[in-house]
Hints:
Blueprint: H1 12-24, H2 26-34, E1 45-50, E2 55-60, E3 63-64, H3 66-77, E4 82-87, E5 96-99, H4 100-116, E6 124-127, H5 133-145, E7 148-151, H6 158-168, E8 172-176, E9 179-181, E10 184-186, H7 188-196, E11 204-208, E12 222-224, H8 225-228, E13 241-242, E14 246-252, E15 260-265, H9 266-280, E16 288-291, H10 298-310, E17 314-318, H11 329-337, E18 341-344, H12 346-353, H13 358-361, E19 370-374, H14 380-390, E20 397-400, E21 434-437, E22 449-455, E23 465-466, H15 470-478, E24 489-493, E25 499-504, E26 508-511, E27 514-517, H16 518-526, E28 531-541, E29 545-554, H17 563-575, E30 584-588, H18 601-608, H19 625-635
Parallel strand pairs: 4-17, 6-7, 6-8, 7-14, 8-11, 11-12, 16-17, 16-18, 18-19, 19-20, 29-30
Antiparallel strand pairs: 1-2, 3-13, 4-5, 9-10, 14-15, 15-23, 21-22, 22-24, 24-25, 26-27, 28-29
Helix pairs in contact: 1-2, 3-4, 3-10, 4-5, 6-7, 9-10, 12-14
The structure holds 5'-O-[(S)-butoxy(hydroxy)phosphoryl]adenosine (WT7).
5'-O-[(S)-butoxy(hydroxy)phosphoryl]adenosine (WT7) binds next to helix 10, strand 19, strand 20 and strand 25.
Amino acid sequence: xxxxxxxxxxxxxxxxxxxxxxxxxxxxxxxxxxxxxxxxxxxxxxxxxxxxxxxxxxxxxxxxxxxxxxxxxxxxxxxxxxxxxxxxxxxxxxxxxxxxxxxxxxxxxxxxxxxxxxxxxxxxxxxxxxxxxxxxxxxxxxxxxxxxxxxxxxxxxxxxxxxxxxxxxxxxxxxxxxxxxxxxxxxxxxxxxxxxxxxxxxxxxxxxxxxxxxxxxxxxxxxxxxxxxxxxxxxxxxxxxxxxxxxxxxxxxxxxxxxxxxxxxxxxxxxxxxxxxxxxxxxxxxxxxxxxxxxxxxxxxxxxxxxxxxxxxxxxxxxxxxxxxxxxxxxxxxxxxxxxxxxxxxxxxxxxxxxxxxxxxxxxxxxxxxxxxxxxxxxxxxxxxxxxxxxxxxxxxxxxxxxxxxxxxxxxxxxxxxxxxxxxxxxxxxxxxxxxxxxxxxxxxxxxxxxxxxxxxxxxxxxxxxxxxxxxxxxxxxxxxxxxxxxxxxxxxxxxxxxxxxxxxxxxxxxxxxxxxxxxxxxxxxxxxxxxxxxxxxxxxxxxxxxxxxxxxxxxxxxxxxxxxxxxxxxxxxxxxxxxxxxxxxxxxxxxxxxxxxxxxxxxxxxxxxxxxxxxxxxxxxxxxxxxxxxxxxxxx
Length: 637
Ligand code: WT7
């Protein structure tokens, strides 16, 4: 006993048994799994929780450092095993490889740099970097010394970056001169400089030289990465953390107001990401696992950094995009590195499916054993294309449902072990107690049903709070239905207990797998001097899953000009980032509202989706006539 791999579920019966055990003996179940990790001091209690506060603690008073479990532990048994295979944006550039030993050395060296700057346990460090090995190194270096990392996706704007830095009160920023993304070069340092003008807490900015483009330089603040680590030791004692100490903050958008800084902690998160990684992907010691996400999202944190490394796995990290230099890049990389597990998003699958299959047939994908999907519901067509052209109808597909807030996968099949069902995420993993409820929160007991998804028992990976705003955490996740975690998704359950996620039931839209709240986008649009009010909704899009449509009311004093479309989109790109730009904008004289003044988004969604015939009764609106005006406007679009 005492290896995590002893807990790999290899048959449907083993899964059933583990599931039952995880419900009947939850604490023993997780204690056994957790005891396969390296703890500096054992926990006193497995789980302590009270969701009326809400509060959740796992492995109470246990002490550990997650990097010891992700690095040192493996260096002791297989120092030369590859941890990372880094594939650059340009296929002609050199692949970089980090063994567990060399990764640990690089992490320690950078961690020593952070210590020299006075960064200590509990300090927040913002990381705004391209998908290069140094991003992983920076993340783990923070964890090494107990600093809380806050990674901000490098596609976000300076305003979005500044908001996140200020919310967390970060003491330091780590960035790069620029980033390569396909044939584009992004001036990260310039964006970071602009953000830092608004951030008083950041004292130093560490800059990795990636593109060698020219940058503005402030000697008091800026330090090159290579100077920062020059001459530093490759040993750095791990800071011993409490299981419940924060490991990182990761921002996700909400349906209102500013982004929510989800706080994940050290112990439970480590145990949960490793356990789910090993089981969902059925990871074997010689596998080459590739997740195409960016570390700026939770998928990257849990299933590119912590989960795989905790399991001693070898991962491919890719700097570029699927279309560069050509739409065959993913398959070329799969063949080149003999990828065994490939984990991507439906939006990428749909974009790839638009191109000739010849681009796939040139490559040998026979090493593939598992295909994965994450980020949004995968539609039938995309599922079948993935299955036929990439899996050649013999590779299992795992459709993994989870969220930034859940830390790890909650609903998924286990690759090749439990049954898959196209477009269904299938069954909850061990430890996950799902209940469907109706709008009043009453549990739905019928097997075959549709309802709102809730989870009614803690799992180790759940985010513990929203940074600086526990009240909001309570309101958003624990107040809709008493005693239950409310993820904001609807679901359908079949007679076998398989779940299909039907989409968000709140004002969050998933665009290309990215979670975007409509409120912050509306706020950005309203910043434009010509705009009185706006409403943003999602509508179905064949590649992005959903795209955004904005209904915009202009001031009487301004007249419409075609340039307004781009100006408004630019406003959104500046405030939030290019991913949040609405595809369609309709200028209207009013918005459908209830008598209490609430915008009826349901109607706007139907109209944007071209379902004007399915509006239902609109007579209770304050201004039903506006609907007719919008229909006329849409016809001219
Ligand atoms: C929302 C969470 C999980 C990491 C990436 C997104 C949607 C996610 C699936 C799936 C259907 C899915 C949900 C969820 N979602 N995975 N397999 N099937 N929907 O993380 O940005 O926090 O977004 O993504 O609506 O609530 P996120």
